[in-house]
Amino acid sequence: MALQFDLTTRTAQLSVGELADFAIGPRDGGEGPTGIWRAQLGSHWHRELQAQTQTEDHHARFEVPIEGEIVHRGWRLQLKGRIDQILQQEGVTVFREIKTVTRALPAAEAELRADYPSYFAQLATYLALQRIADPAARLRGELVWVETASGLAQTLVLPRADESLFETRIERLTQFLDLNHQAQQRRRTLSFAPAFSTLRPGQEDTRSHLQAALAAHPIVAFEAPTGFGKTGVMLEAALHALQTGQSDRVVYLTGKSTGQLQVVSTLARMTGEAGTASGRTGDAPASALGIWLVRNKREHCVNHTFHCVRDSCRFLQDLETRWPLSGLDRFHLFPDQSRDLRHLRQAGQEAGICPYEITRTALAFQDVWVGDFNYVFAPRNRSLFENQPSWNPARTLLIVDEAHNLAARVADAHSATLRDTECRAVLAELDHLRVSNQLLRRWESLTLLVAATRTTDALDLGREEDLLEVLAQVADTLAVTPLDYAALGPELAEILWRPGELVTWLRDETLTRLLWAPRDGLLAFTCLDAAPAIGATLRSFGRVILASATIGPTAAAATAAGLQPNELQRVQAATPWRDGAYDVAVDLRVDTRYQQRPRTYATTARTVKALRDAATDKVAVFFPSYRYAEIIATAVEDLDPGIRVALQPKLPDLAAQTQWVEQSLVLADVLFLVLGSSFAEGIDLLGGRVSHALVVGPALPEVNAPQRAWLAELERTTASREEPFDRVYRIPGLQKVNQGLGRLVRAPGQRTRVILHCQRFIDPAYARWLAPDYQLGEHLADDAALAEWLGRDPG
User: Which residues have CB under 8 Å from 246's CB, separation 6+?
Assistant: First the structure.
């Protein structure tokens, strides 16, 4: 059982094994990636020794429940566990624990104590609980160590003095609980400043509506346009929830690093402690709130190679012994410590301890965790949060910002690939390491199977079953085979761990998925719809806010999140200042569907020129694809070389993208942007600086094998004729349009004129997915109508 505690009643429940492992600070990684296969080998040797003991002692008992209650420092602690064996020998009750190790036995007792301290503490706890239950009992504890490769066993008798290990663990646990109790008292007396020094029209009403919805409903969808200040409104609601005891923790997720930094700085300002969580220098007062920005493990790394295996990284070796002397507890004990990544890396480097362990340790004591979607929704990443001893989703407020991206992000997190070149590289290295013949043969079978795969939109059932069989054989063999992961290196080790994940993926019947081959020798394990996984995760939290500028219709938003419509309470931001801010027209002269658009390239180019000629500021033109933008850029150049067009470059770095936008707003007449890109959705620089905009068609997703497969599956399972095409194509496409246009008006007084450049925008099947601000507009049937509309005073 996982640690559960109630700060109000000062009670806690946990397993004996968890108490033995409990530490404020990092725990040694044991044998690293070998832990999975060692656990399976452990079960094997437990059964073997159980059979042997039964032969020697018919009265022996196995897997015996042991439980008890301890009162320490005002805390009532309930412990439960199962001892492997209990025997009677000459009037003495023997408690015996079986532990498997890969190292050669026999080994010096001092080495076993240093490498496996929790095993000794676990047995000591069982003995202590039994002495509490029966003070007169004559007890002896035995640790039986088994070498996995040979079955050779070594027995150590636990001295009575070692039972003090139990007391040490109890002291650690109550210290942790006391710190959390102090944090609760701090939250209850929390005071904070408003997010805004001056409220815009609608902000005050929206804040009260959001707080009321959170108090009455577990899951709230909060829609507010870009520039409204929804981050501040949500943080006020979050701090209110902490202050009133509605929640014990806030987890704020957003996929943008700039958004994460904004949340941290806003929280620090609101609590009156500027700089606390984002890198203060010591001259600002300490924060009344524990705030931690979680960055990924690679960003923390200070080793010469990013490869988290103890044997290859001195920063991971002997962590449990070195941590208490490192002084790194200061990051969770003293709120005046700078917690930005630079200071964490510097402190870890100086202490010789992985900086990620500072984050891992400190999180348990923080009131607000800020990070990426993956820490809650991705199977590979969520263990950082889930393994925290204070993790309790039922008492947590989860805020998901930019929630319109959640479905795609979670589907990506549940997808994977396997390449023939990767498999061959691993095969060569396994041969070099002289692993078992069985593992070598099975990995070779996998390599041949992947290499023989030919391009296909979907593997047939027979091929899928063959693949599952081979992957399962590899995974089973890896589970019982010790390997030198340090020698393998980070890239090959990651590939080697993949078969077990893929077996789980293939056996998971809850997700809509596709197994296909985009090209020869490449298998793609694609999750088409992760809604069931999203819904299950959301329901585990006490309170949830799903926030976006483009939530869309409630029924569609609920379906994408794996929820029923009645599970989603909607709060719409009040924005009276946006009324009439968009002057919209629909251009009926063009059809931008892929097969039709070449006929109207010239018309689109002339429309761009007309907008430039009429504009009082910059012009933004939004395209469904980069290639389409390139073609029209060339056409505009041919039409009028004097028009300065800035075509969105392919820049992955957000800082470089922002710089390009700033420069283009100064140097260019027209900005060509691709809908769905960071330029169109992630950079908030266009508000009030674009007088005219052109949207060149709805940005429907590319037609490919996954999209076709998802559409076919929805058509098979959905009675509605329109809903499948809506979910796969129209909703994602029009959502990109809404996101792009929403960034053009970010504050009171800003206005813009928009032409929706495609006949499909008047089709109700498309128009109903546009935001209300863009649904109603004048129809432009010919060039004269366009000229008349552009010449009209929009005022």
Answer: 214, 215, 240, 397, 542, 543
Phi and psi angles of residue 387, each rounded to the nearest 5 degrees, phi first: -90, 0
Q: What is the pLDDT of residue 320?
A: 81
% pLDDT > 70, the chain: 95
Dihedral angle sign, alpha carbons of residues 267, 268, 269, 275: negative
Cα–Cα distances in angstroms (integers) from residue 663 to residues 442, 691, 751, in the given order:
56, 17, 22
| Tens digit of each residue's pLDDT (9 = 90 or more) over 165-195 | 999 999 999 999 999 999 999 899 999 999 9
Task: Mention every residue, 6+ apart, whose C-beta is less than 8 A from residue 599.
Answer: 591
Above 50 in pLDDT, residue 93?
yes
Select, from the ranges 143-157, 238-252, 309-323, 656-670, the one with the highest average predicted confidence (pLDDT). Answer: 238-252
Task: Identify the pLDDT of residue 163.
Answer: 87
Task: Please answer whether residues 546 and 406 qualify as being in contact, where contact means their C-beta atoms are separated by less than 8 angstroms.
Answer: yes
Q: What does the alpha-carbon distance between residue 498 and residue 475 come to, in Å, rounded to a whole number? A: 9
Neighbours of 681 (CB within 10 A): 25
pLDDT at 46 over 80: no
Task: Tell me whether strands 153-158 and 139-147 are parallel, antiparallel or unpaired.
Answer: antiparallel
Q: Going by DSSP bridges, is the β-strand pair 92-101/139-147 parallel, antiparallel, or unpaired? A: parallel
DSSP per-residue codes, 285-304: PPPSS-EEE---HHHH--SS
Q: pTM (2 decimals)?
A: 0.91
DSSP character string of 161-179: GGGHHHHHHHHHHHHHHHH
Residue 751: partners with Cβ closer than 8 Å, 6 or more residues away = 580, 581, 582, 583, 691, 745, 794
What residues does 519 pair with on adjacent strands?
522
**What totals of helices (H) and strands (E) does the chain contain, helices first?**
33, 24
pLDDT at 653: 76
**Cis preceding linkage at 159, omega within 30:** no
Residue 429 CB neighbour total at 10 angstroms: 17
Q: Sort strands 543-548 and 396-400 into parallel, antiparallel or unpaired.
A: parallel
Beta-strand (E) ranges in 131-257? Answer: 139-147, 153-158, 219-223, 249-253
Cα 356 from Cα 347, distance rounded (Å): 11
Between 108-112, 275-279, 742-746, the lowest mean confidence (pLDDT) is in: 275-279
505-527: average pLDDT = 96
Q: How far apart are CA 389 and CA 175, in angstroms?
A: 13
Q: What is the mean pLDDT of the chain?
A: 91
